Amino acid sequence: MNNRTTPRSDGRLGLHGSGAAFADLSHEIVSGATAYPGLPQPELTSYLTHEQSRKSYDEGYQFQTSRLCMVGQTGTYLDTPLHAFPDGYDLSGLDLRRVAQVPACVVDTDEREISAACFARLGRRALEGRAVLIRTGWSRYWGTETYANGDHPHLTGEAARFLADAGPAVVGIDSLNVDDTRGRARPAHYAILGAGIPLVEHLTNLHELPTGGARFTAVPVPVAGMGTFPVRALASWSRWT
């Protein structure tokens, strides 16, 4: 196996001969810089280096082990109902059918306060059982002061309730938060998570997705008793459509 010496690829990647295209929809987690504003930032340290491991193996063999200390709201992450409700299901209770290879419905909007009309024009049947991905373009500000300045696009309470009633499998957004963070209320989280629908926040590269035909995946590790965790979110679709 070749050593991985180049940075991770971003955006769309076509696999030759497979007929499939992919978009990586996750922000990279970087030590010290990518947790939700105001929360402890991730700390990546070495537990065992390649050099240290050599004494435990035959000549020519070496391994590296790292330690990552972070809060659940780091990078691109998924919220389960436990995040808001003590009796909600946790990461280990997440039904993978909600977050793996789910047909995507991409919703474009330039509204700062995203209204119910943005979803109503599509109709409930277009949203039901889908991964509703809200494409605002706000991810272009990732890593800047603008990203978390409070002006990010977010759902109104009415829009969140409309979405919850429509019954999507999962809801995602490429913004700081599905709620307005300038106040203390979180109606979007409570409406959507309260309906048993997981949320994915801080998506990126949604501009790579086609208008239709993509499938969305965002699977966290099944940590019992935890409500939020980073995901490697991605979309895939046929290159021939």
What is this structure's SSE topology?
Blueprint: E1 11-14, E2 20-24, E3 43-48, H1 50-53, E4 65-69, E5 77-79, E6 102-108, E7 113-114, H2 117-120, H3 124-127, E8 131-135, E9 154-155, H4 157-166, E10 170-173, H5 187-194, E11 199-201, E12 215-217, E13 228-230, E14 234-238
Helix pairs in contact: 4-5
Written account of the structure:
With 241 residues, the chain is an alpha/beta fold. 12% of the residues lie in helices and 24% in strands. The protein has 5 helices and 14 strands. It has helices at 50-53, 117-120, 124-127, 157-166, 187-194, and strands spanning 11-14, 20-24, 43-48, 65-69, 77-79, 102-108, 113-114, 131-135, 154-155, 170-173, 199-201, 215-217, 228-230, 234-238. The strands form 3 sheets. The chain has a 10-stranded mixed sheet with strand order 1-2-14-12-6-8-10-11-5-13, with helices on one face. α4 packs parallel to α5. The chain is globular and about 65 Å long.
